[in-house]
Amino acid sequence: FYQWGLQSGVKYFLFAGSQAEYGRGSRENPEPVSAYGKAKLSFSRYGLSGGKGKESSGFQEQEPQMAFLDLRIFSIYGIGDHETTLVQSLVQAVLAGQSMDLSPCSQMWNFMEARDLARAIAFLLKGGFGSGTYDLCSQDSRPLKYYVLEIESLGKAFLEKKEGKTLSTSSSLLRFGERASNAEGPVDLKPSVKDLYDRGFQEKISFSQGIEELYQHFYQKRV
């Protein structure tokens, strides 16, 4: 498909990568753990090299015919996402008053609402920044557990507003440490977003706003 793009005069090739390419490493020194992450890193290097099979030094004698945007997309959430994702599962569990087993959630994490992701991609295309690796996420990196607890807290406030229920803020149905981490282990997300935000990109949807919209969406489906 990449070669077809080169031969057909395609202007931009957008590769939907993720944190799996970094694994336990960083952008400068990636250490993918899973076969999935290793395969994606291999292709991103292939694309950034202009299809030569090895990573470019960053400078080329002439502008490549097709810009390769290596998009490392970090933990997107929003209405329409798969309902078994962490965020969607949490929202539905809080609304139903059900307990939920979780990993320790100790790793650093980062979320971005789906519409802001779309804006970020459009921003890169309109800016004509050319080939490169771009981490797409918010600037708010913190332990995943803090995000999870905020989702629960926002849900309790939502139910209190909708149904007049006063739910205890000191008790929780979330059981941390009951599940193992995924195949890559408790990998910290270490996004590098300076090149995105320094160029002028701005998010429009805060985490609390995005989560409140999800609660409203699933609440309406229940009634």
Number of strands: 9
Largest beta sheet: strand ordering: 1-2-7
- Identify the overall geometry: elongated
Helix content: 25-40%
Description:
Helix 3 packs parallel to helix 5 (144-163). The strands form four sheets. The chain has a three-stranded parallel beta sheet with strand order 1-2-7, with helices on both faces. It has a two-stranded parallel ribbon with strand order 3-6. Strands 4-9 form a two-stranded parallel ribbon. The model is unreliable at 56-63 (pLDDT under 50). By secondary structure, it is an alpha/beta fold. The protein is built from seven helices and nine strands. Helices cover 38% and strands 14% of the residues.
Brief account:
The protein has 223 residues and is of the alpha/beta class.
Feature tags:
alpha/beta; 223 residues; two-stranded parallel ribbon; 7 helices
Topology:
Layout: H1 2-7, E1 12-18, H2 35-48, E2 67-73, E3 76-77, H3 86-96, E4 100-101, E5 108-109, E6 112-113, H4 114-127, E7 132-136, E8 142-143, H5 144-163, E9 174-175, H6 194-197, H7 207-222
Parallel strand pairs: 1-2, 2-7, 3-6, 4-9
Antiparallel strand pairs: 5-8
Helix pairs in contact: 3-5, 3-7, 5-7
